[in-house]
Amino acid sequence: MSHDFPPYLYLIGAIPDVENSKSKSDMILDVAIRSEGLLQQLSAQLAQASHRSPANIASVASPGIAISPSTVSNFGRGEGPSDHISNAILSPFHASTTESILSWPHFGEFRSLIKESKFSVFQLENARKPLAHRPSPPQPYMTKSDIEKKIRSFERGINFWYPTMARSTTKKLQEYLLSGTLEESTRSCLALLVMALGCSSELVGLFTTDEAPDTHLVEKERQQRFLGSMYFECAFKKVSLAQAEFTADAVQCLFFTGLYFSFLQRPLQAWSFISAAATKCRLLLSYSSSDQPPERLECLRRIFWSCYILESDFLAELSALPQTGIAEIESLIPLPGQYSTQESQSDQEQSSLYFLACISMRRLLNRVHDLLYARNDGVGFDNNQFPSVVSELGHQLEEWKDLLPFHFQFSVDLDSTKSPEGAFLRQRYLTCKSVIYRPYLTWALSNGEEEVECPPIVFEGSRLCLEACWMHAQNLRNIHHTIMVDTWICSLSMASVVLITLAASRVHSLRQLISHQVIEIGPHINDLITHWMYIPGDEVSPSVLESTKLIANVSALLKLSWNKD
Fold first, then answer.
1. Mind listing the pLDDT tens digit for each residue in 74-113?
2. What is the DSSP letter of 406?
3. Quick one: which of 417, 520, 431 has its CA closest to 469?
4. Measured between alpha carbons, how far is 200 from 197 in angstroms, rounded to an integer?
5. What b/e string do you get for 389-399 counting C-beta neighbours within 10 Å, with b at 16 or more?
6. What distance lies between CA 134 and its chain's CA centroid?
7. How far is CA 403 from the centre of its chain?
8. 354: left (phi over 0), alpha (psi -120 to 50) or beta
9. Distance (Å, rounded) from C-alpha 328 to C-alpha 144?
10. Residue 180 region, left (φ>0) first, then alpha (ψ -120 to 50), else beta?
């Protein structure tokens, strides 16, 4: 007897097993029922204490994906969750950005060193020169084998992490490129963007290899960088066509343009195109009908979820950015279903599961930021309210980790992971853990050396926060996904890590919770990020550069402090 399970059931633990499928289904249902009960209790407590809307509190759901007994069967049919599940959103002006940490009073004595007034991500990025473009860039000539290689690089990179382009579409674009007759059309723009991203993905791959650098490798890097920029210039000349159209191809053009700007470490431009893609995608989904091709609808849904992840990543560090509203309807959009984006069935399955793991983690991260650090009603700074919220969020984070498929599983230490995707997910896990337990650290910091004012749970929560920060920094590696898309985000995240460590090191009771290896954090981080920020070219991101300076300055303080002991 065969079973045709949707791929996302793997992520929540319902892995097809003919002999044991009932017990696995029961396990998922038990988790959902128990989680729902805990959320109802938490909702009632917080609503009574601060008159918050129970619907907002109920947005926390295990295991990072909105799920309840009433929606398990809907997921099995590939339908969206019911309306009562709240959306996982990021509140405007939340207090968990790197710039917010810089404003902590604990850094008062280091103001001249940190130069807080000059560390404005938006101002730094907004003051950059526009990306240079030639009036009539020549289209690069490539052989059939070269084009096929770039397409494969695109599929195994971008289209693996954000699987939005169907394999059938990729093949058609490859044939179109081989014809050598690119007209002024959205299809031409899309084909050129795929090539630009394929070249860039191949370039990043050269930096993640163990091959020793030599003249040959340097020449390959230069060639891939040049080809990627040429293809992007040609595509960018046609992107206005995509802006004027309302088709799935047009949405994909805007989305891929945003991804290329992410690779260039230009966050404002990346956010602009990701937002444009999200807005157009939302409009097309709103007017979708049952008679349209299922593949087109699935493409739009996957672009929606990809935009949701990326927009949330930008908002996590630039909380004042206008939002497209996709987070406000995310619980109404079905999770990814059947869709062929990879050549092999194995890669196809792994891509779908990885995509779901990233979606579920981003939803959990959004709930963490909103519940704990929302501008007006976050409970992270209310010592009477946040412990129960932190406890439930921490529990859901562990469930997310435990239910990951085997290929993506990881240990919470410095050991190697089973796959690069597992390494990326471990970094996301550690980020989320540090943010969840940060309220305990701020509680301890506010009391300074007055340990008698802090219950033991405060120091345990502080230990978990600091340990996650340290492991996050030490586990930073040349991960293809991180370099290609998240270098800018990573630089700010690492700046937060060293700042938090510096603040804790100034309090004796917290200093005991920090490993003596903390002095190794800064050099390790900066060696990697400095290497990454020159991959797109010589023009580096000013905010990434400022982050590396901040990390170096704080690391010098930490080293000086430790050497005195």
1. 322 233 333 334 789 888 889 999 989 888 888 777 766 6
2. G
3. 431
4. 5
5. bbebbbbbbeb
6. 33
7. 19
8. alpha
9. 44
10. left
- Residue 126 covered by a domain: no
Neighbours of 409 (CB within 10 A): 16
Supply the pLDDT for residue 548. Answer: 94
For residue 442, tell me if it sits in a domain: no
3-state secondary structure 89-134: CCCCCCCCCHHHHHCCHHHHHHHHHHCHHHCCHHHHHHCCCCCCCC
pLDDT score of 212: 61
Do 90 and 327 meet the contact criterion of CB atoms below 8 Å apart? Answer: yes
Three-point CA angle 431, 401, 441, nearest 5°: 35
Using CA atoms, how far apart are residues 274 and 308, in angstroms rounded to an integer? 9
The helix/strand/coil state of 318 is coil
> Do 503 and 107 touch, CB atoms closer than 8 A?
yes
Q: Please, what's the largest Cα pairwise distance for the chain?
A: 76
**Would you say residue 55 lies in a domain?**
no
Q: What single-letter amino acid sits at 325?
A: G
**pLDDT computed for residue 45 by the predictor:** 53
266: which 2 tokens? 């230009």
- The candidate with the shortest Cα–Cα distance to 121, out of 260, 265, 263, is 265
Tokens representing 395?
Answer: 């529990």
Token pair recorded at residue 359: 């979606």
Residues with Cβ < 8 Å from 352, sequence gap 6 or more?
7, 8, 163, 336, 339
Residues of the domain holding 214: 144-332
Q: What is the pLDDT of residues 306-323, one digit of tens each?
A: 999 999 999 999 999 999
Domain count for the chain, please give it: 1
Residue 421 one-letter amino acid: E
Residue 271 counted as domain residue: yes
